[in-house]
Every structure is written in structure tokens, then in C-alpha cells.
Write a structure and sequence with these properties.
single chain; 202 residues; mainly alpha; 2 strands; elongated
Length: 202
């Protein structure tokens, strides 16, 4: 059974709109609607405003935790500016949840949270490697940088922190690996292997 909630002028697209119509809190309306779902009701294309807001808050709190552990620098400065904007955005949603009209903002902040988590892992591995990490540590560090690069490139934006540096590093590593694979004599192989290992410890 598909239920369409309407206020007489337009179909309500979010639980915040439904709450306003019914004169109830968003949380109360979402509990009511989810209970109806358990009896077979379907709410076409409904934006669950309270759930979306909770996801937004969770991602933002996660980013703030990572931010607090970051070393000073360009990456931390970038996240400071982002956090300020998200805090302001969150205050607007909490003041009027009906202004949260789609889940795009959650997708964006969760994406940034994922990147920040990978960056945190990179920083931790880099510190371990710099203090005398073994080959496994360097391999994990390189893998994390590739993971960051792959994730960042999916956003198709130049605003991601460290993206250019990771692209350049990845390109150089692939070039060295190709040269190593095509080398025919042991001396040349050793040269490329040494260059690769030297680069990995920079």
C-alpha cells in the first residue's frame, strides 16, 4: 500500500513537512510513519528529515574528532573552514528542519568524513614509518595514499586536500614499477628498485 501525504496543495516530500502539517515533532511523526511501514505502508520518495539530520551530525562529530588530532598545516586549516561552514549549516537545519530538502548535504559531509579518516590513517602510518617503520609499514602507507587518491578522484574536484601531491606520487610510483618490470639486466633492476625504495621513504 502506497501512502501519499498531501497538505491539499502539494505532496509533502519530507517528514519535517508532515510534522508541520500534523502539528507534531519530527521524531514523533517518523516513529508513527515507520510503524505504519511495518503494516505494509509505503511512503514514496519520503525524505526522513530526522534520520538525515542524525547522519549529518554523526559525520560532523566524526570529522571534528579527527580534526582535533590533526597536526597544524594546510589540511587542518581546510577542515577548520569546512567545519565552520557545517556548524552554521547545522544550526540552520536545527532551527528549521524543513530547509533540509534533500540528502545531498549528508552525502557530501560523509564523503569528507571518509577522506578525513583515510588521511588520519596516512598521518599515523607516516609517523610510524618516519620513526623507523619496516617494509610492511611503507607498503600500508602507500596503499592508504592510493586509497585516498581513488576516493578523492571520484569527487571530480580539485578542492580535495593533498590530491595533487598524491596524484604526482602515484604517477611516479607507477612509472618506477613499469621501468622495473621492463628492465632486462640485474644492474638496471637494482637501480630502479633503489629509486623506488628511496621514494617510498621520502
Amino acid at each position: 500500500m502506497v501512502i501519499t501525504i498531501s497538505n491539499g496543495r502539494r505532496t509533502l516530500k519530507s517528514s519535517a513537512d508532515a510534522a508541520d502539517k500534523l502539528g507534531l515533532s519530527v521524531s514523533a511523526v517518523e516513529v508513527l510513519m515507520h510503524n505504519l511501514e511495518s503494516y505494509g505502508a509505503e511512503f514514496d520518495d519520503m525524505l526522513w528529515s530526522g534520520d538525515v539530520l542524525d547522519q549529518y551530525k554523526s559525520a560532523l562529530n566524526g570529522i571534528k574528532t579527527i580534526y582535533d588530532s590533526m597536526e597544524e598545516g594546510a589540511t587542518k586549516d581546510r577542515y577548520k573552514n569546512l567545519i565552520d561552514g557545517w556548524d552554521e549549516e547545522l544550526a540552520g537545519y536545527e532551527n528549521d528542519l524543513s530547509t533540509l530538502t534533500n540528502d545531498d548535504v549528508v552525502v557530501k559531509i560523509q564523503f569528507e568524513y571518509s577522506l578525513a579518516s583515510i588521511q588520519q590513517q596516512i598521518d599515523q602510518l607516516q609517523n610510524t614509518a618516519d620513526e623507523g617503520g619496516d617494509n610492511q609499514t611503507w607498503a600500508e602507507l602507500n596503499a592508504s595514499k592510493r586509497q585516498y587518491l581513488k576516493k578523492a578522484e571520484s569527487a571530480n574536484t580539485s578542492e580535495i586536500a593533498n590530491l595533487d601531491a598524491y596524484k604526482e606520487a602515484s604517477s611516479y610510483v607507477e612509472e618506477l614499477k613499469a621501468n622495473l618490470a621492463s628492465a632486462t639486466d640485474e644492474e638496471t633492476k637494482m637501480q630502479f628498485r633503489d629509486r623506488f625504495l628511496t621514494f617510498m621513504t621520502l
